[in-house]
Amino acid sequence: MTEEQIIANRFGRFGKREVKQSTSNLAVMYTRVSGKGQFDKNESLETQRKSIEEYAKRNNLTIVSAFGDTYESAKTDARKEFQRMLSFVNTSKGKISTILVYKMTRFSRTGGKAISIADELREKHGVHIKAVTEPIDTSNPNGVLFHDMQLLFGRWDNEQRKQVAMAGMKAKFEKGIWVVKPPQGYDIVRTNGERKIVVNADGKKIKKAWEWKLMGMKNEEIILKLQAIGVKMYKQQLHKIFINPFYCGLVSHGMLNGKVVEGVHEKMISKETFMKVNEVISSSTKFGVPHKAEDVNIPLKVFIKCSDCNQPFTGYIVKKKNLYYYKCRTNGCKCNKSAKEMHRLFSEELEKYEVKHDLTEAIKIELESTYHELNKDSVEKEAILKARIVELTKDIETLEEKHFIKDEMPKETYDRFRVKYTKEFDKIRKEMATCGISISNLKEMINEAVFLCRNLRQLWQEGGIAMKEGLQNLLFPNGLVYDKKTGAFRTSEINFIIAQIARHTGDFAIIKKGLSSLFEPKSLCAEKEGFEPPVPRGTTVFKTAAIDHSAISPGAKLLLFFILQVIFLKYFFLVTLCFHIPDNL
After folding, report:
1. For residue 478, what are the CA distances in angstroms to 254, 481, 492?
2. Is residue 209 within 8 Å of 222, Cβ to Cβ?
3. Using an 8 Å Cβ cutoff, are 531 and 496 in contact?
4. CA 387, CA 390: separation in Å to the nearest integer?
5. Distance CA 9, CA 571 (A)
6. Among 186, 204, 491, 508, which residue's Cβ finds the most Cβ atoms within 10 Å?
């Protein structure tokens, strides 16, 4: 070995690795369209395939595989077919020399990211991207520059289109036109070329969820009922539905910058119903509290508050001992209580308000008599309204006969009277819905309700989570306060109905607490500071202005109100969750 060779071997340096060159004539083809509409027509894809195949034939290239052939947006490179093509090329070990596309925008519109991908393909694998309608030689710096400019132009063009599209969308949103996919319960339909958003079959079922929420049902129970009638639903989705103003005919979108406009789509519910439901949600003691699954072992959490800081209790389990406890949420309050002891105290509290056995028959008689008395005016009003509906139906039939059959009435006159009759018809139906209650098996219902009132303690102890919480909220709408100093419950506003039951049971301890004024006659439409729960719970509102209350015992009126709430509790909460009353009661 010569001296020059020795020096070269020891001290010689090599330049940077050259760009890999592929001499293969093998290629892959990538085609795509942006949207499903273009894909369904298939015209663009067919044109792309034909042009690429002709280019390959002219340039002696053999297409070994085809990718894409579907709709994929080029605003991102995380496309399924695009990534599958890159993976195929990268693992071909230099056998593929060319990626054929119709135009460079078909390859990508991501600008800088697309340039990076093209550089890696060219320098590491010797693969060049060829746009058959815009052929550029990328084997030299000038060609690479123009190639990169095409990719950057694709990104610029995409941003320009996006800007125009966003301006158009905003303009439509401001007119109340919802231009994106509608929420659950709605479909987009086209009639004579006109686009409309209407309530679909699922939406008609979801509409019931709003009614159930106003009745006082919890979201878990509403979900079970929706699933039972074939609607797919989960808790987060139901909450999104309840707080989305779209369902009451309003349009709220980020493009409106905080504005809410009247929409042109079909309403599922009224604005009044929407606002009532959201008031229920915001006034809930659990609103804003981190969600945890309901646990039958700690049903009093949130319901009970600390006497020192007025914060609701939470519940937890000591896993080593497998024991449950309640504690105040305030740091440093140190108000902890065994769940077992807390439940014992609450059971004793319930026992105070149970109806005694020897009063059962007397209460049943008075309840049935009171029901008929309270419902008398409603029955008479309902009969009058039904008669008016019959008259209206005949008027509409006569109207249609004169217009469509006898041709005696012009269309303008027909339309005017038709609108008038329809409005009156809807008004009557709404009035009929407020005509009180109708119970076909009244005696059976009263027997069931009185049975529940006689066994409040045992039903709470042996019931499921829905039964426990339902009874708690029914009897003590504002919850209870636990005084850790005395180890007892107290409440600043005792439910008037509870006090009335205590009077019937002979427990005058409540009266001695200074609550005797509660036994004065009150209207069944009293405000919530009397006896009505702060959150609507499916109670029947009695229209009693025309009834002579002096002829009816105030205790009977209010006890009936309580009984009807218990009926609601049983037939809406318990049936939903298949609750079974123990046979030994």
Report:
1. 38, 9, 9
2. yes
3. yes
4. 5
5. 94
6. 186
Crossing angle between the packed helical segments 201-214 and 235-242, to the nearest 10 degrees: 80
Q: Distance between CA 391 and CA 348 in Å, rounded? A: 58
Q: What share of the chain is helix, strand, coil (3-state, %, to 5)?
A: 50, 10, 35
Q: Which helix (H) or strand (E) holds 259?
A: none
CA torsion through residues 161, 167, 173, 177, sign: negative
Among candidate residues 105, 25, 118, 107, the one with its CA nearest the CA of residue 63 = 25
Which CATH code for domain 26-169?
Answer: 3.40.50.1390
pLDDT in tens, 368-394: 777 777 677 777 788 888 888 889 888
More confident residue, 304 or 39: 304
Q: Which residues pair with 186 in a beta bridge?
A: 199
Residue 445 · residue 567 · CB < 8 Å: yes
The contacts of residue 494 (CB under 8 Å, 6+ apart) are: 510, 515, 518
Distance between CA atoms of 322 and 316, rounded to whole angstroms? Answer: 10
Question: Which pLDDT does position 40 carry in this prediction?
Answer: 54
Predicted TM-score (pTM) of the model is 0.42
Cβ-proximal residues to 547 (8 Å cutoff; 6+ apart), any chain: 373, 374, 376, 377
CB neighbour burial string for 392-407, b if at least 16 within 10 angstroms, e if fewer: eeeeeeebeeebeeee
* CATH code reported for the domain at 186-283: 3.90.1750.20
Amino acid at 165: A
Q: How far apart are CA 476 and CA 75, in angstroms?
A: 58
Half-sphere exposure of residue 19: CA atoms within 13 angstroms, side-chain side: 16
Buried b (16+ CB within 10 A) or exposed e, 409-435: beeeeeeebeeeeeeebeebeeeeeeb
Tell me the backbone φ, ψ of residue 287, rounded to 5 degrees.
Answer: -65, 125
